Amino acid sequence: MKPIRHHMSKILKFTQFSVRDLFVAAAPTIALIAGVCLLAYWLVDPAPPRTVRLATGQENSAYAEFGKKYAAALAKHGVKVTLVPSAGSGENLKRLKAGEVDIAFVQSGSTNEEAAEREGLTSLGSLFVEPLWLFLRETKGKPPITQLTQLRGLKINFGAKGAGSSRLFRQVLELNGVEKGEVEHFSLANTPATVELLEGRIDGLVFTSAPEAPLIQMLLQTPGIKLFNFNQAEAYARKLPFLTHVVLPQGIVDLGRDIPAEDYKLIAPTATLVARDDLHPALVDLFVQAAANIHSGAGWFSQQGQFPSAKYTEIPVDAEAAKYYKSGPPLLQRYMTFWLANFFDRMWVVVVALGALILPLSKVVPPLYVWRIRSRVYRWYGQLRAVEQAVEEASDDTRMQVYEAQLVRLNEIEDLVNQVSIPLSFADGLYGLRSHIQFVRKRIQFLMGESAPAPDDEAVAV
């Protein structure tokens, strides 16, 4: 059985397709295709960065709290969100324009469509309404403040420089005919301003924030602190189109204690997620999906599913974000991890590159494979030609020695040729080489017979 197996293994050796030769022949083509694909993959549509800078807001503000939620949401996908604290919407907008951050919370009304396009800014959608909260300290013996004109002569904190509340409240006062300087203006951050209000050193303070902000929650339940009721809220919304009229329902803060004890009319801009227009589309998708998870629930001023939205923003909405609001998350991201889905989503670049290269280059590989196999035979013809040349150039004095040496050389060549392994479909070339070796051997032997000295008469007679 062993001889039969040995014989069969030798037969298989010569009938197998030469995968190694095919790989070597195709290697340059494969390397070229891989190189072009990688170049296209990284240059045409680079991979999304793994870090992004998000400008939030002041400590204990809604922006700061929501920023933490976005950081946690994107961390699940391997993207690190660096939170950059700020005074508020105004400062965030400046940092976006300067390229100091990639994305930020910005209050509606902070800019306009032309300015946003000029600065290279794009909206990822509005997230929530953030009412203008005016908290005033109640004073015994004085009537409650019901009109903004009654603020003349009072000490009011408008918000830190760079906060959206300061700019908005100035516009509201101007609509009421209250000139700059008629109200003593302070520019403290939210937390120290709250301390000043509670200590009685200022008469009121202004926020623009979602009700989730800890300071808002605290002030709504603090005795002696009164929330201003914007009874003319609808008129403000008509005068300033970026504002909406919202109602803080009676008892929404604490039903048991009936806080607040009545409905409060408020005016509210919307908070918008604004990014630079060079933010990678894949990160846009991630932020919009995170926004849907964080802001889609029902709230004090919004219905279930009302936010996030492509509405309520004067900044042009990013194309990727608009696609999400229309069709939901990308198909692949519904079933795959973010990075895997992003990889396949970008594979169209590779497909285009492959389509442009594979068809023409595939015609080169078969000839290269054939040439490589046949070269194992053809290279010995050079050795065979060298033997013939040495025989032809042999002088009369050294002819026999040359013939003998070349016969030895032919034997060595034949031994090496017998060790050559090629697929059976190319065996005709190998057998042709062997026959040509035999042909050259016979020719040398014939020449040796002609060159041998003829025997003389005496030797014949003997």
UniProtKB/TrEMBL annotation:
<dbReference type="InterPro" id="IPR011852">
    <property type="entry name" value="TRAP_TAXI"/>
</dbReference>
<keyword id="KW-1133">Transmembrane helix</keyword>
<feature type="transmembrane region" description="Helical">
    <location>
        <begin position="347"/>
        <end position="371"/>
    </location>
</feature>
<feature type="transmembrane region" description="Helical">
    <location>
        <begin position="21"/>
        <end position="44"/>
    </location>
</feature>
<dbReference type="Pfam" id="PF16868">
    <property type="entry name" value="NMT1_3"/>
</dbReference>
<keyword id="KW-0675">Receptor</keyword>
<keyword id="KW-0472">Membrane</keyword>
<protein>
    <submittedName>
        <fullName>TRAP transporter TAXI family solute receptor</fullName>
    </submittedName>
</protein>
<keyword id="KW-0812">Transmembrane</keyword>
